[in-house]
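Predict structure. Chain length: 330.
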Amino acid sequence: METRAEKKTKKKRIRIIGYTLLAMFLLTIGIGIYAYQHYKPENHFKKVPLISDNNNNPDGTVKVDDPVFNVLLIGSDQRKGQKIGHSDSMMVVHVDLKNHQYHILSIPRDSRVHLDGYGYTKLTSVQYVMQAKHGSKKGIEEAVKAISEFTGIPINYYVETNYWGLEGMVDVLGGIEMNVPFDVRLTHPWYKENQNKVITAGTHTFDGKMVTELVHERYSLANGDYGRQQLQGEVLKAIAKKALSVGNIPKLPKLFDSISDFIVETNMTKSDIISMAYAVKDFDPDTQVHYHQLKGKGQTLYDDILQANNSQIVIDEKEMKEIVEKYFIP
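Prediction complete.
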């Protein structure tokens, strides 16, 4: 039978354990509240980078009233083991986390641009030239500035991946379900077994391999590169829908660690991604994502870098300005 002293000691231990558990609970709540407040988009994105205007912003950032910014997505043709590549796909995403609206602008890879010190060339060549001159990281930033100057869109964040990175990213997510808007015949596949394979229009579930095949194809499409841009837009929506699904949001930090292995260059941090996840409100690409394309005329013109004629697209500058001012200026 316990003595009075033993009972008193036992009660004291229980009290200490209870206070300790309470303190741990309150600390956990406090950390959770701090994290939530820290990652809330309106707090986290008070300042964002501005890649395209560092001369006017010495620290390379700009203050914003609302969590609204532009992200440039670059898909390069960089092969394994290489340090430089061409911009094979370019899409600017205008992210409005306050109103939960996202505008995507596809930029044709063969758009005719003037590159200071070099002359006229295709936009796809700018990344290659800049990376060859400045190295991978600095070269991408210079390419981002060139794209910003060409379109008139202020670029805050950029993410560069390549075909192998895209394949790995999709596989990390466990595949994606996407809409294929028209029949696609694979004429230039990465994998020989897919030569001349036909993907019919409709909704399909794809692994990383097939996704890379789809975003690479353009020769068999009625609208050529514009058709490929549509496919790339559908892939982007499908990836976002899968990554931002309710079940995946708690896994985003871990997913980001895995996905970052397949990103070649970016100025986005893990905390940027987590903060964006906090802003997700029943993400529905059919109502929240709006897709735009830059139109132009295909012409055979002289390329000053290649010192030869090639096929280029002369963008309708008036139409581009209207789209940019309406949807992509914060």
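Summary: The chain has eleven helices and 16 strands.
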